[in-house]
Amino acid sequence: MAKIGVLALQGDFAEHIAVLHRLATDCREVRLPGHLEGLDGLIIPGGESTTIARLLDVYDIREPLKRKVREGMSVWGTCAGMILLARKLVEDRPQPMELMDIEVQRNAYGRQVDSFEADIPIAALGVAPFHCIFIRAPKIKHLGPGVEVLGKLTEGGVVAIQQGKLLATAFHPELTEDTRFHEYFLSIVAGQSHDPYPGPD
C-alpha cells in the first residue's frame, strides 16, 4: 500500500488526513525532513503560503522535498500548495519550490470575503462535476507546455492542473464530502514509476 504524507506545518492538513483515513490510506503528518523517508506521495495543504514557505526553511524541509520529487515522489498542492509548487509567482514572495512549470498570482480572486464555490466538470474524475470551494484562491497566469489542464471555471480560468506526477488545485477538495480528487492523486502515486519527473521547464 502507498504511504502518503501531509505537510503539517500550517493550514488545513487535518482535513486531508481525515479524507485519507476514509479511503483507508496509510498516511502520516510531515513536519521534519526525516518524515519524508518512505513516502510515495505528499500533499501540501491550503493555508498561508508565506508561513508555510518560511517553515519549510526553518525546519530544513525545502531541499529534501525537492530531492524526493526528483527521485520520483508524487506531490499534490491545494491552494497555498499550488503557490509553493510554482516555478514563478507574480509577487516577490514567498519563494516557491519551482517544481511545476506555472506562474501563479496569490489571492487573485480577492480576500476571504470573496471566497466562492463552483461545480466544475473534470473529465479525469468522471461525468459528475466536482464541487469546488475557493478560499483566497490563487490564479494561474501562465502554463508551461508540459502542463495538462484538468479543470476550468466557466469564464476560462484554469483551476486544476497536472504535470507528470505533480498535481495542483486552486480549490480545497478536502473541505467537501467528495473523495474523488484524493482518489485521483492516489492513482497518480500508484502509476508514478512509469512517469519520470518532467522538471519545471
Task: Break the fold down into its secondary structure elements and pairings.
Blueprint: E1 3-7, H1 13-22, E2 26-30, E3 41-44, H2 49-58, H3 62-71, E4 74-78, H4 80-85, E5 86-89, E6 100-105, E7 116-120, E8 130-134, E9 139-143, E10 148-152, E11 158-163, E12 166-169, H5 180-190
Parallel strand pairs: 1-2, 1-3, 3-4, 4-12, 5-6
Antiparallel strand pairs: 6-9, 7-8, 10-11, 11-12
Rounded mean pLDDT score: 91
CATH architecture tag: 3-Layer(aba) Sandwich
How far is it from the N-terminal to the C-terminal residue, by CA?
32 Å
Q: What class do helices, strands and sheet pairing give?
A: alpha/beta
> What's the number of domains?
1
- Strand residue content: 25-35%
- Number of helices in the DSSP assignment: 5
Spatial strand arrangement across the major sheet: 2-1-3-4-12-11-10
Task: Name the CATH class.
Answer: Alpha Beta
Helix coverage percent of residues? 10-25%
Low-confidence stretches: none
DSSP strand tally: 12
Order of helices and strands: EHEEHHEHEEEEEEEEH
Explain this structure to me?
- The protein contains five helices and twelve strands.
- With 201 residues, the chain is α/β, with parallel strands linked by helices.
- The strands form three sheets. It has a seven-stranded mixed sheet.
- Strand 10 and strand 11 (158-163) form a beta hairpin.
- It is globular, with a radius of gyration of 15 Å.
- The mean pLDDT is 91.
